[in-house]
Structure formats: C-alpha cells, structure tokens
Specification:
With 599 residues, chain A is of the alpha+beta class. Chain A is 27% helix and 18% strand. In chain A, helix 2 packs across helix 3, helix 8 runs parallel beside helix 9 and helix 16 runs antiparallel to helix 17. The chains are: A alpha+beta (599), B mainly alpha (319).
C-alpha cells in the first residue's frame, strides 16, 4: 500500500465513512501494530476512541468484592518495576505501581496517572516529535499519603537513566534529553532527536512510577539495597500487605485510590509457583482461584478443563511470533574460534531457492491445528498484530510439489539416497530449538515434509535454560546459532515495532566480537533494510513510518530470512464470574481497578 | 568420648570446605546466566546486563569469587540473591517454617505408620497382616510422589472437591479457622510424603524387629513369664529400634531442605521449591546456600547418628 492510499484511508476515517476499527484492522493486515495505527489516526487529528474497559461496570462504592485470588505459575521475585525480570515481576509490581498511561488492546493509550493522553491536536505532542507534554492527574497520593507530583516523574527518569542502577527499563528512557517541570502536575519530555514513538517512556510495563521520597537515597549502585524493592509504596488500587519472594504477594484495597468507587475487590492475593496445567485446573476445574496467567497449555487440555464449567480460556492477541531462522553463515566451519562467523557463507542456505522451498515445506496449518489449536494463528508475516487475518502483500503456502520444482529448477538434483545435492553439497540440515513438547512436534512436522522434498533434517533440541542463556562460552545458545536452522518465539514486548524489527539490521549481527549479544541472529546482511530501519527511527510522520515498517516486514518475508510458524496470542484462564479486560500490549493487570465479579 | 567428638568436629572443617569448593566450582561452570531474560528482551540494551554482571561480581575469576563467598560465609553472610535482590538468609528463613511444618508432619506420619505396622508384621511374620502390609509397603515406595500427588489431587480436589491443592503459606483467617485451614491444605502433601516414607520405613522396621525377635534372650523373657506386651515393647522393640533411630537421624537433614517434587506439585513454598526455582533462574547464591546448608546438616547428623548409636547401644565404644 502506498503512502497516498494510507492518507486517503485516514481521510475516510476523519470523514466518518470508514470506521476507526476497520482502519486499524486494515493496517494490521499490512503488518502494522495496532498502537501504530492508532497513533497514525491520533497524529492526523482523529480523536481517541473511548476505551471499553472503564465503561463496562459502574459501581457506586469502593470494595465489597471480597478477595481476588490470582495464580501465576512463575512467582514474582521482586517488586520494583525497574528491576523486574520477566512479566511475573512486572505484574506483581503493577498491583501497586502505575504508569502515566497503559496500552489498551487496540493500542490506544489509556490514561492512568495522566489527566489526559497527549496528542498533536491538544498540543501535548509537538509536531516535530521532539517533545511531549504530560498533564498529570491531580489529587493522586502515594500509599503513604504523600502527593504524587511532577518531581516523581522526573525522578524516575533520573533513576533509570543512570547505567549504574542497571534498570531493566532503561531502553524506554534513553531518548529523553531532559524533562522540564512546567508546574507541579505538568512535565515536558524533551527528546534528543525526533521520537516517533513518544508513548514509550512512562507508559505500559516499563512506565511504572516509583516514589521519589522513598527511592531517592538509593540511586545508582546502591539501588539494590532499597528496602522498598520488596515493600512497594505506589499509587495503585491495592496497598502492599505482604510479599514472600517466589511465593506470594498480598495487597489490601487502597481507600484513597484516585479512581472513584474502585477497586471492586477488598484484597488481592497473587500466588506464584507450580506449573501451568495445574494453574489452569485451579481456575477452571476447582475454582480455587479466579484468574491464572499465561496458560502455556495445549489447547486440548484447556478445552477439557473448560467443560468443568467454572472457567474459560481467554485469548488476547500479541505480536509474539514463533519462527524458524535460516542461518546465512556457515555453522560448521570455525573461523577465529567462531562458528557461524560473518567471514563465512552458508553453503546452501544463501541460495534463495533453498530458502523459498523451505518456506513452502513448513505446514503452518498442521502446526496450528494439531499442536497449538486456539493458542496460535497461522501467518505469513513476521511483524503481526492483533487481528486474525493475513497480509495482502504476503501469502504463505504449504506445497511439497512446488518446493520440489523450485529446488529442481535451481539445480538441486536428487541423489541415489533421495537427498538433493548440487556441486557436491548435500541438502542436509540441523534444525534446533529448545526442549518444549509443542516445539518438538513442530520439528517433526517440518522434518517429514522436508524429507518428501529431498531435504534431510536432523533434529536437535537444547534444554531451554541453556538455549536461551547468554553464556558466551556455550555453543548451544540461540545467539551462537551453531546449526543451519533454529526455531523459537520472539516477543514483541513494546507496542511499537522499532525495537522488535532491530533483529534484522546489519549493525546488530551477533558475533564473537560483541560476545553474541547482537540481536540479529540470522546474520542476514542488508544495507537496504538497515536504511529503512534508520529512516523509521527518525520519521515523525506516522503514515510514512508505517509504510517503512511494511517494507521492512516484506523484505524479511520475501527473502525468507525467517519463516513465521505460528503467531501466538496470550492465553489466560479466567473464572466465569470474573470480568476482566485484557490487553496484549500491557501487563495482565493494566486495568486491575476495573476487575469485578458478577454474582 | 570427648576426644572422639573433638576429632570428628575437627575433621568436619576440611570436609565442609572441600564440599563447598566442589559445589561452588560446579555451579560456576554450569551453563546458564541469571540475567538471561534480559538477553532475550530487545528493549534492554546489553550494557544493562553487563552492568548487572559487574555489580554482582560475576565477571571475576572463579577462585576470587570462591574466596569472597567463603569469607562472607564465615562471617555469617550467606550472599545476595541475584533474582530477588535480598539476602539469601532472609529468603531461606522465610521458607523454613512451612518446610518444617509440612515435612516434619510427613516424617511423623511416616513413623506413626511404620512403627506399629512394621512391629506387628514382624511379630507375626507371614501372617495375612504381614502379607498385606508388605504388599502395600511395596506399592507405597514404588509409586513416585509426583504420581501419587497428582492422583490425590485428581481424586480429593477435582473429583470429590474436598481439599484445596494449592498451598498458601499465609492464610488470612484467625483462631480455629486458621488451624483448620492450615491442616486441611497440609493433608495432601503430608499424606503423599508421609506414606511414601512410611512405606520404606515399614520394611526397615519389620526386618529390624524380625532379627531381634528370633534371638534367644527373647525366648528367655517369654520363659520368665513376661507378658507378650512387655516382651515386645521392652525387650524387642527397644533393641530393634537402634538402627531405626540412626535412619531417622539421617533423614532429618532432608526435612530442612524440603521435598522438591511434592512442594512443586502442591505449590508449598518450602525450601525445596526455592531450590528448584533458583536452579531454573540460575540464582547461584541461593543454590549454593541451600546445597551447602544441606551438606552441613548431613555431616552434622551423621555425627549425631553415630553418637546416638553409642548411647543406645553401650556395647559400642568410641576411640
């Protein structure tokens, strides 16, 4: 889709002939994320849609809902959002801490500690993308009674940006040059350069704000000693009661919460540990708990539990994508003590025909149907977003005959053993992934199809704790990529693809030099892609920027740098009585104050 | 006696130092990285991880790290958890009451089952009771706890809906309800563990008693006209239990370190589940502390068992 077509569509939304939702869905089809599409509209002056969650239930008083019991099969280990490792800690923190704004399922900003969402037309966002002004909600107090003000916002940036603090959230704050305090409840973020995705700092899971008066003495290296790392004092709907790392988090209703008549529940208990299957049981079969997080459980099991009639699986889309990577370098030749070195070229995966054929040999429909069920969607795109349909630019197909033809045409002839070869190089590949039942089943499906096309696949599986580790000395980690193919899920943690799409840029290639910390694991080198990514980083016009990301996604797909296997939504188990609104772009607790039970 | 004790205590020092060295080296050489989650997250720049590694001293060579660990351990500082960012000591102490309560009860249950059943079976060997108890004991210790645990959950929680299968360490109720709730949630994990241990111990008690009951002095006791009750309890059991006592003493370290699998199934926040989550998260200071404390307890209780043995059986002398 060209730029002028996009502008035309936006015009239609403005004129009211095209619904906002239809526009967002069209953009999703182009491989854009919902938040981006929403931002495009916001930039063009189309008002934000009313967020649904808040309106669904109107209580007349606070509390009265009893205890809310939620189950996380990984337990939170600390409650400082800036040090959170993994969603468990973010979610645990989110009970007590809040950001300025959250991301709703459509990718709109939903104000939490902000009085309103900044936009171009209300003057909050500057046209050049160099600054954004946030108006803070007035009358918000910390749990200890101190007022929440601009100083707290500035402090969080200062706390995080100090590299000695080693905050996990630092990535969201590096673009900020300075924060001007306009008054006690207005701050202006001034960026070092034009920032198209200004809704990064102070928003979503990375945006939770900790109180200045308690954390100020613990900046930099002392940060780990802060007693409040384990005893949060926030602005959230629940006040901290008890926390046992690796086990339980408890909170009581905050009587001075800044949203009137919320929360509904009198207390919350977040229990951690165990495994996903029994967590699903506790919600859907016995009803011991009201909500369970991240149901990485086979759909068949979920369906059986649902027959218990006490709860159901709730599915919300994300940008997470299970995909197969094709190694562009030679994993079997060691150069200067490094396998898959940039100085080598893969003997046959550099041949576009082979990659094309491979892409046709991945039976995404079978993987979806037989393995993941409702917990995955088939897709042709790497960059996906919350709607169940496939891009118009890209199509995937499973076609063994066609794969055979492509290989034949490219000169890969079958030998006596049935394996194709060319110039003495045989199409034999090692295909690795982490140990996880659905992944091993996927491997088997791919292997079977490849055998029919004269490609021999050797399956390798590595223990997850090794595969996903960053140990520079271990060859079996995914960044080392010491095999021909590998498969895992990358998560789109941010509702903006800038960082997500870093993983194909030429300057991010993982190598010995950067201790395999680079994000580009396939070692695909494309100057053009790099230019597009850089352009997107500086492009403030959301429409032009969107077109750039579509181009980037299409380059990756057309060149078969990776083969998308399954687009994986987030699944949770919810008691039938509990009403929650979920968002794939934020913490499960993004609307915790609005959770309620129906009698 | 005291010279023997002193010698044993002195030997313990190099033994424990050796154990700690081996444990530490293995943990350092093991694959994995406590900050791996950061590595896979595209929003976290690599410098953050490098900074954290530096902050927690992971970049130093292993001997330096070992010496640092060893000296702070001598000062009573158990280290600092990478994952929770609190002292390992606090973390373990938080878990200790639950562990002791659940595993202590299980051990007690095991004994309460094993002693009467084992003794009665041995006194009437090859009777119907003996046959049945032997069969059950074999079934009991052949079935792994992860199987019986899930079986219990399916039956008592899902099918009958009687008992909760998620253990909560802090129940908000007060008074009698608190006790009742605590007991109710402990029933399944305690039963699973206790019956498993009890089964094995029954066999042990039975064979120990069987050995004694055939000896001549028991016949003498009976010939003296002592009642069967007195003969069995005073003369047989007392002597037969000497090996059982040492066995129990050697099992006590296990009570402190928890039962990894059972705790995981019932979500008991004990030391076993702390150990397994720490292993999965590569939280080496916590793993190190738990394994080392376990080694210490094993060494100490070995000594205790030896001493108890001598106290119960005066024929043994220490030199």
């Amino acid at each position: 889709m060209q730029e002028h077509e996009l502008r035309h569509l936006i015009g239609q939304v403005k004129a009211g002939t095209l619904s906002r939702r239809a526009f967002v869905q069209t953009m999703l089809g182009l491989g854009l994320t919902a938040p981006m599409a929403a931002q495009m509209l916001a930039h063009a002056g189309v008002a934000q849609a009313q967020t649904k969650g808040a309106a669904m239930f109107n209580p007349t008083k606070r509390g009265g809902g009893g205890q809310l019991k939620v189950l996380w099969w990984q337990a939170p280990t600390l409650l400082n959002p800036h040090f959170a490792t993994g969603t468990k800690d973010q979610d645990g923190s989110r009970i007590f801490y809040e950001p300025l704004a959250s991301y709703d399922p459509d990718g709109n900003l939903f104000p939490v500690l902000a009085a309103e969402v900044p936009s171009v037309q209300n003057g909050g966002v500057s046209k050049d993308g160099r600054s954004v002004t946030w108006k803070l909600k007035k009358g918000v107090t910390w749990h200890d009674g101190k007022p929440f003000t601009s100083a707290d916002v500035v402090f969080n940036w200062e706390f995080v940006k100090d590299p000695k603090t080693a905050a996990r959230t630092i990535g969201s704050y590096t673009d900020i040059d300075k924060i001007d305090v306009l008054d006690s409840h207005t701050v202006r973020l001034v960026f070092k350069k034009p920032v198209p995705f200004w809704a990064n700092a102070f928003c979503g899971v990375n945006g939770m704000i900790i109180p200045k008066h308690l954390f100020e003495p613990y900046m930099g290296e002392k940060s780990r000693e802060a007693p409040n790392n384990l005893k949060p004092v926030g602005t959230g709907p629940f006040k901290f009661v008890d926390f046992k790392p690796g086990d339980i988090v408890k909170g009581d209703l905050n009587p001075s919460y800044h949203v009137p008549n919320r929360p509904f529940f009198d207390s919350i208990e977040m229990k951690g540990g165990g495994d996903a299957v029994s967590a699903a049981r506790a919600v859907m079969q016995t009803g011991e708990y009201d909500y369970a997080w991240n149901m990485q459980v086979e759909d068949e099991i979920l369906k059986r539990f649902e027959q218990g009639g006490r709860g159901k699986a709730s599915i919300v889309t994300t940008g997470n994508i299970e995909h197969i990577q094709c190694n562009q370098t030679d994993p079997w030749t060691e150069v200067d003590g490094e396998r898959s070195s940039l100085k080598t070229k893969h003997p046959f995966l550099t041949d576009p025909a082979v990659r094309q054929a491979l892409s046709m040999l991945v039976d995404r429909a079978s993987v979806q149907e037989q393995i993941y069920g409702r917990t995955a969607l088939t897709t042709a795109n790497f960059l996906n977003a919350p709607a169940p349909f496939v891009s118009k630019n890209n199509r995937w197909e499973f076609n063994v005959d066609k794969a055979n033809q492509i290989l034949e045409a490219a000169g890969w002839k079958k030998g006596a053993d049935g394996i194709r070869a060319k110039d003495g190089k045989k199409l034999k590949m090692v295909y690795q992934t982490s140990i996880n039942a659905p992944r091993q089943k996927t491997q088997a499906i791919v292997k079977q199809a490849c055998a029919k096309a004269g490609i021999e696949i050797e399956i390798k599986s590595v223990v997850a704790s090794v595969f996903f580790s960053s140990d520079p000395a271990n060859l079996d980690t995914y960044p080392h990529f010491s095999t021909d193919l590998q498969m895992y899920t990358v998560t789109e943690t941010m509702p903006d693809p800038q960082d997500f799409m870093l993983q194909f840029t030429p300057w991010e290639i993982a190598s010995k030099e950067n201790k395999w910390q680079g994000r580009n694991i396939t070692r695909w080198q494309s100057e053009e892609y790099g230019k597009l990514h850089k352009a997107a980083e500086a492009e403030v016009d959301p429409v032009k920027r969107a077109a750039l990301f579509i181009q980037m996604n299409d380059m990756v797909i057309k060149n078969v740098v990776v083969i998308p296997v399954a687009w994986r939504p987030r699944v949770s188990a919810i008691s039938n009585k509990l009403k929650v609104a979920q968002s794939g772009w934020d913490s499960d607790f993004w609307q915790l104050p609005f959770w309620h039970k129906e009698a | 006696m005291s010279r023997y004790l002193l010698r044993r205590l002195l030997i313990m020092i190099p033994v424990l130092a050796g154990i700690s060295l081996v444990l530490f080296t293995i943990l350092c050489l093991a694959p994995g990285d406590p900050f791996e989650e950061l590595a896979t997250n595209p929003n976290v720049p690599p410098e953050v991880r490098a900074n954290l590694r530096h902050q927690f001293g992971l970049d130093d060579p292993i001997p330096v790290r070992y010496l640092r660990w060893f000296t702070s351990m001598l000062k009573g500082d158990w280290g600092f958890s990478f994952v929770s960012r609190i002292d390992v000591g606090t973390l373990i102490l938080q878990r200790l009451p639950t562990t002791l309560w659940v595993l202590g009860l299980a051990q007690l249950l095991g004994l309460l089952v094993a002693l009467p059943v084992g003794i009665y079976a041995a006194v009437r060997p090859y009777s119907l009771f003996d046959q049945v108890s032997t069969t059950l004991a074999f079934i009991g210790f052949s079935l792994p706890t992860f199987f019986t645990g899930i079986l219990f959950i399916l039956f008592f929680s899902i099918y009958l809906d009687w008992l909760p299968f998620i253990y909560r360490a802090d129940i908000s109720a007060t008074g009698w309800r608190w006790y009742w709730e605590n007991l109710r949630q402990a029933i399944m994990p305690v039963a699973v563990l206790g019956l498993f241990q009890g089964a094995a111990m029954t066999r042990f008690v039975r064979s120990a008693v069987l050995e004694i009951v055939r000896l001549d002095y028991i016949n003498t006791a009976r010939a003296k006209g002592l009642s069967e009750r007195v003969t069995i309890l005073k003369h047989v059991v007392r002597n037969a239990l000497i090996p059982v006592v040492t066995l129990v003493a050697l099992q006590i370290p296990g009570i402190f370190t928890g039962a990894v699998i059972t705790e995981q199934i019932f979500r008991v926040p004990g030391i076993g589940s702390l150990l397994i989550t720490s292993i999965l998260a590569n939280d080496t200071p916590v793993i190190m502390a738990i394994t080392f404390v376990f080694s210490c307890l094993v060494v100490v209780f070995n000594l205790v068992a030896d001493l108890l043995y001598g106290w119960l059986d005066p024929r043994i002398s220490y030199r």
